[in-house]
Amino acid sequence: MADDAFTDALYARGLHVPFLHAESVDSTNAWAERELAQGRHTPFVLLADTQNAGVGQRGHQFDSPAGTGMYCTYVLSATPEQMMLLMPAAGVAASRACAIVSGTTPRLKWVNDLLVGRNKISGILAWIRQDRAGHPVAVLGWGLNLALPANRPLVANQPVAGLWAVAPNPDPRPALLANFLTELTTLLDTPVTIMPAYRRLAAGIGWRVHIDDGQRQLDGTLAGFADNGNAIVKTSTGTVTVAHGTLRYEQL
Description:
By secondary structure, the chain is an alpha+beta fold. It is 27% helix and 32% strand. It folds into two domains: 3-201, 2-Layer Sandwich (BirA Bifunctional Protein, domain 2), CATH 3.30.930.10; 208-249, SH3 type barrels. The protein has six helices and twelve strands. Strand 4 and strand 5 form a beta hairpin.
């Protein structure tokens, strides 16, 4: 697809953000790191048609075939409060963008997945990095299955699906990207709205869950989410909050 379709969609929403497009990269987040190291100023957005080393949460592989997915990274400066709430804000923005473009509203699985039914369609990955001046910036990657590849299964550690049964024509990625950035900007401009919106879209509140945060294994009931985005889990020994980790629903 011509890059004009993406820039036109961004400009139509008042998003005058530099846009770079590649047919194939290792990962868009790694590409973003290289752009920062070379002195590119924030904000900017990168999109690739395929990734050959896509990365998910905690180093998991994110399979990124051409023609059936959207793989992008948005690099932005943000306040400390915005940085703290970036992941839930991105989840809400991604769900809203999907709903606007496809009519399907994905639910949010803490901390970084979008679900349709019980199947993962999308993952979000945020890194905090520094620009060449030493200022902190957010590197926010979004990978979305538009549809499942017809010729091979996706490599994944949980059940997966696509936003559509078949990738639509015309290409929905310009509209998805523009709506995602529009919704994200609106949320970050009003941080007090982020967690209420996240809770409305969250999947699994009241369910039995297992969480691995890299230091401990927790089993309990997902009770909700704190105002800073942490998960609240009721265990047999009391209520705990968890800032990050991998969550598994015991019902799945």
